[in-house]
Design a protein that fits this description.
Low-confidence stretches: none
Number of domains: 1
Number of strands: 0
Structural class: mainly alpha
Largest sheet: none
Number of helices: 2
Mean pLDDT: 81
Oligomer: single chain
Order of helices and strands: HH
Shape: elongated
């Protein structure tokens, strides 16, 4: 895409991109700390038992927990951006 002056058109303004990035980092940081304390408090002992008894199940549980965490973080961030009326940064054209 180019503007009439021949310069490439910037799809997402730099300030908007930086603002959204900082908001996402704050949200992810907060949720990561909450998740860490919840996992440490409620999952540490059961996961230690599974680790000692069956490494394959422990590995699968670890992967499932990572996937659940990623989906949850994306869901919460999407809700927050929709609530605040902010644009999501995506690679799709015309997705604002």
């Amino acid at each position: 895409m180019t503007e009439p002056t021949g310069k490439p058109k910037q799809l997402v303004p730099y300030r908007e991109m930086l603002r959204n990035f900082l908001i996402e980092m704050v949200v992810y940081g907060f949720l990561l700390v909450v998740y860490f304390y919840i996992a440490l408090r409620y999952l540490a002992q059961p996961l230690a038992v599974v680790f000692n008894n069956n490494l394959v199940v422990y590995g699968i549980l670890g992967l499932v927990l990572i996937i659940i965490q990623a989906v949850f973080l994306e869901f919460v961030t999407s809700l927050l951006f929709d609530f605040l009326g902010l644009h999501r940064l995506t690679s799709k054209a015309n997705h604002h």
